[in-house]
Amino acid sequence: MIDLVILCTAAFLAGGLNAIAGGGSFLTFPALVFLNVPIIAANATSAVAVFPGYASSALGFLSELRSFDRRLLIRLVGLSVVGGVSGSLLLLVTPASVFNWIVPWLLLFATILFLLGGRINSWIVKQGKAQSNGWISTLIVSIYGGYFNGGLGIVLLALFSVQGMRDLNLMNGLKNILSFVLSAASVVTFTLAGIVYWYEAGVMMVAATVGGFVGARLARRMPVSMVKAIVVVVGLVMTAVFFVRSIA
Question: Can you give the residue range of the structural domain that contains 98?
Fold first, then answer.
């Protein structure tokens, strides 16, 4: 019962955070590790738990996505599939001891990106430098997303800014659809590898969906700055915990 409460609480709060500001994986992943799910399986299960939310988020930007160049969208989706599969396969061949050492650094990287993401995007926009041929960078970001989902949205938004995009609604739509596609590729890979803890994943998916619905309603009432501060604090605390865990 205690495990169920932890899973539901972490996923509910994660769904709310993702709906308001992002950073839900800072809660789902540590919760699974706390419940003694092996660290690599916890990463895979966490990816499954937050995966459905990307689809519903993308639906909110259908008009922008329909206006986007179809050939370019197909290319981006294809790169996301390749990157998602590649990243998840890379995770599968990573020894647990190595991943245990890498995790706190990934959490720290994702937290810093979350904290400075707006400033980074603003700086890129001010530079006014666009890269028309960004398929390599798109593939690299997709591999990162397949390997470790934390901070993926911020990385994708920065990538789109570098590629010359300025329509924030379109960028958010692309961010959500590419996150959904590469996460789907990762989920399929993790499922075939048999490392997903489906009971935990199922419970968290339901709780995260409810949390996302509630979070979307609260988003209009709560200051985003407050929520972002909470996410950053959680990210830093989880980073410290995993640093201690990696050297224990």
Answer: 2-247
The model's pTM: 0.81
The distance of Cα 175 from the centroid of its chain, to the nearest Å, equals 10
Pair of tokens at residue 86: 């590649």
**In total, how many domains does the chain have?**
1
pLDDT tens per residue across span 178-220: 988 988 999 999 999 999 999 999 999 999 888 877 776 675 5
Contact 35, 201 (CB under 8 A): no
Query: CA separation (Å) from 21 to 7, 113, 114, 142, 234?
Result: 21, 13, 9, 21, 13
Cα distance between residue 58 and residue 234, in whole Å:
26
The dihedral sign for the CA sequence 60, 175, 241, 246: positive
